[in-house]
Amino acid sequence: METNPDLEKAFRDHLTARRFDAVIHAMAVLDFWPQALRRGKVGSRGGAWVVRLRKAPKIIRKIKRWAPGVFLIGFKLEVGVNERRLLERARRLLKESHADVVAANQLSEGEDQEHPSYLMNASGLVFKKVIGKRALARAVVDLVLRRAPVARRGRSRQRV
Questions:
Q1: What's the CA gap between 143 and 72, in Å, rounded?
Q2: Which CATH architecture is the domain 4-30+54-153 placed in?
Q3: Is-contact 72 99, C-beta < 8 A?
Q4: Where are the alpha helices (DSSP H) in 18-148?
């Protein structure tokens, strides 16, 4: 996959063709993409380039449409905002995506092992704060194991 439309198509195809218990949407998908694309090589003569960007559609907002019963965990990564603003933006993502949980964190808050993340439920309440990527990964896996019915029974399901 190379583009947002490629990723969107993969999600749509998989989520509408099979049943999944959980989706962990932890990827950084482009917020903006070029308004126009050029095919092939462009010569180096011709002066400066102007690249116009347009807002890319948010794929996470469509996941519950394709798979209404899936347990959806989203991520909200921000840069240079305070904790209050970070949590406001995470609540907005919850509302727009209908996610069950959002993990909110900031890129600028230290090294990976010191990085705080806030886990927020669908009501917008922070129910857990973890420090570091490993702790966040453990918390997310624990949530999926507790919420996904097949995972609790120990049977394997489709994975993408």
A1: 10
A2: 3-Layer(aba) Sandwich (3.40)
A3: yes
A4: 60-66, 83-97, 133-147
pTM beyond 0.85, yes or no: no
| Torsion sign, CA atoms 143, 86, 66, 37 | negative
As given in the structure block, the two tokens for residue 45 are: 């003569």
pLDDT tens for 73-86 read: 999 998 889 999 99
Residue 5, SS3?
helix
Are the beta carbons of 60 and 75 closer than 8 angstroms?
no
Tell me which DSSP letter residue 57 carries.
Answer: P
- What does the alpha-carbon distance between residue 111 and residue 130 come to, in Å, rounded to a whole number? 14
